[in-house]
Specification:
Blueprint lengths: L2 H27 L6 H12 L23 E3 L6 E5 L22 E3 L8 E2 L13 E3 L5 E4 L2 H4 L6 E3 L5 E3 L5 H5 L7 E3 L12 H8 L5 E3 L6 E2 L13 E3 L5 E2 L15 E3 L7 E2 L2 H4 L6 E3 L6 E3 L12 E3 L4 E2 L13
Parallel strand pairs: 2-3, 3-5, 4-6, 5-7, 6-8, 7-9, 9-10, 10-12, 11-13, 12-14, 14-16, 15-17, 16-18, 17-19
Antiparallel strand pairs: 1-2
Length: 331
Amino acid sequence: MTPTKQHHLHALLLLLICSYSIDAAAKHNAAVPCHPDQASSLLQLKQSFIDVDASLASWRAGSDCCHWEGVACDVSSGRVVSLDLGGYNLVSRRLDPAIFNLTSLRNLSLAYNDFGAANLPSYGFEHLTNIIHLNFSLTNFFGQIPIGIARLKNLVTLDFSDNYGLYMQEPNFQTFMANLSYLRELRLDGVDISTSGSNWSIVLADSVPQLQILSLFLCGMSGPIHHSFSRLRSLTIIDLGNNWGLTGKVPDFFAEFSSLRILDISGCSFRGQIPTKIILMKSLRVLDLSRSPNISVCLPDFPLGNDLETLNLAGTTVSCDIQPSLTNLKS
């Protein structure tokens, strides 16, 4: 074979190899379409909503559910990993159990949809073992929060806020929180956890050491805040507002939470003077002490560069003269 022919043959061989490699890579990278059982479960869920043709128009039999509104799939398996219907203003009389067939879910949000004061299903949530973010905020559910949610050990975000008919009795708050050690964000505003008594702060310190956001507005908590709560050094938001049963002094150790941006203890029954070092925290942006008649506040000299944005003292006692340095609060 002549050198010229050898060169041409070599070039042709390289071209074939490259073409095969590109084709194989394309096939490898191509997203697998939605798994049929996933589409079937989603369509069953759709049927449980009232008048959803407009808001979920893309949810049609025969089409790839991975491209449906609010749905995301794993590209290699075609299984649904995210279902985000938050804010779609959907209406239903129940949570259809078909949702529990989506066992690959890592994110589930049904926030701001109306479930008509229905009870949450007693069983089913325990199947969603991969879930990381769960958001049922303002969904108008009533009754006991099911034990199955307490078994979701990978949860990082748990939001049942603004559901004023929900409660934790069996399981109680301590049992519910016991296995959620990865939790970073806990929002239960309006959920009745009063059966925890005065142990709620100990439960949190023992169960969720890496917690960053804690919002327990109007949850029926009582007692003083236990010193073990001081171990939650990663907190950036603390909202304990409207828990009239909370008593004792506002803990000094709040000032040790170096990342704390929001502290809301309004409408509680704390007593005594607020520690100055809390008011002067460099990280703090919002301090709400309002509707706390047993709290007294002596405003300190505020240094230039203080970044406090909201200071609400309505209904407290200001126990000393207001300093001219108040004008240093430029934010």
